[in-house]
Amino acid sequence: MEYFQKNIVPPMVKMGNQRHLRAIRGGLYVTIPFIIIGSFFLIISNLPFEGWSDFLGDFAPKLGAPVGVTFGLLALITSIGIGYNMAKEYSLDRISGGVIAMVGFMVTQVNSEYKLVIDNFGSSGLFTAIVISLLSIEVYKFFVERNIIIRLPEGVPPAVLNSFASLIPGAAVVVLVWLIRVVLGFDITAFLAIVFSPLVFALNTLPGMLFFEFLVCLLWTVGIHGDNVVGSIAEPIFLQYLAANTAAYMAHQPIPYITGYGFHTLFVAIGGTGATIALVLLMITSKDKAYKSLGKLALPSAIFEINEPVIFGFPIVLNPTMMIPFILTPMVLCTATYFLMDLNILARPVAVVPWTMVPVIGPFLVTGGDFKAAIWGAVSILISVCIYYPFFKSAERAQLANEIEVTIDQTKAM
């Protein structure tokens, strides 16, 4: 543990605070409301009730239109979000940053006939959107820092001032991407798909997901927000999986991916990373007053997947005993859920549901209304309680013994 704290934690902390990763996270967060809206229409158009599709009739394709738009613009929205957030990191004009990044991304989507195509505006263009958006803002920053911008007289409205200030940097971005994509004929999207293909493949396998869960939980045990650090890299891939699943679901075809967005947040991280809702339930029934009080205080947030009160209040951070179930529980739930989906016993994720969704309800919604997923959500909580139980009881006994010892010392002092 000492070696981990001295040699592993510092670079991980630095990585978690890295401005480019923060901008990527911020850009991806911008997409979430829109794909939740699209998922709402998806669920409504495919409710698992007998006769529902007959009831909708010709109206069903109309419900599918918002789904196609929201999921079909995933990369384009991401480019705006990353550009905005990256400009914020550099104290540049945020609106200009978002627009420059978006235009840079769109130039990459010109085909061999020099026409704009929208095929990769969705999840397939996510990696291109990320890379080009970051590059665009770096170019923007380069020109602003060297004062290579158009300056207008004082008194000009800020909106006009910022638009002219971004003219030269924006032109530089367009020319740079145009040279790469059009003049040289280099397909950036296809190239990045090849570069990231090993990672894309790994995160839809059980070993890859187990490593992901292990790393996320391990970082949390030393006080680092593991979901932010590792999720910045994995989340675009999970969103790609989900978009492909959604398209297959709407076309009534087999769902291709198991670990789409929602697999980790709703099936594995029940009550928060580490499935700590189990620990909260155990604390509520504890013989120790301090644990019982903490459990009651933590329950409302745990229901909505927020578990910082448990991680730092119990604590789990730097607690060798509780680190074991905190890491082990997600590994068990990940393995079991993966096999159940692989065997088609449980439906796979097809809709975006907020990560703060209540357990049991979340799995039901993310799978498009699979009642078995809701039942599995309840069973997963029971499994988590069973894993945490012996470790919690050990901590409880130590806590009670410590309180008795303190009481004896206080009595002697009197």
Biggest beta sheet attributes: none
Counting DSSP E segments of at least 2 residues, the number of strands comes to 0
Topology as a string of helices (H) and strands (E)? HHHHHHHHHHHHHHHHHHHH
Percent in helix? over 70%
Shape: globular
Structural class: mainly alpha
Number of domains: 2
Distance between the termini: 40 Å
What amount of the residues lies in strands?
A: under 5%
Poorly predicted parts: none
Mean pLDDT: 88
Q: Write down the Rg.
A: 25 Å
So how many helices?
20
Task: Give a structural overview.
The chain has 414 residues and is mainly alpha-helical. Helix content is 71%, strand content 0%. The radius of gyration is 25 Å and the shape is globular. The two termini are 40 Å apart.
Structure described in brief:
With 414 residues, this protein is mainly alpha-helical. The chain has two domains: 2-196, no CATH class; 201-413, no CATH class. Helix content is 71%, strand content 0%.
Write the topology of this structure.
Blueprint: H1 2-16, H2 19-45, H3 52-56, H4 60-72, H5 74-89, H6 94-107, H7 126-145, H8 158-165, H9 167-183, H10 188-195, H11 197-202, H12 206-220, H13 226-250, H14 263-268, H15 277-284, H16 289-303, H17 308-313, H18 320-342, H19 361-366, H20 371-413
Helix pairs in contact: 1-13, 2-4, 2-5, 2-13, 5-6, 5-7, 6-7, 6-9, 7-9, 12-13, 12-18, 15-16, 15-20, 18-20
Keywords for this entry:
414 residues; mainly alpha
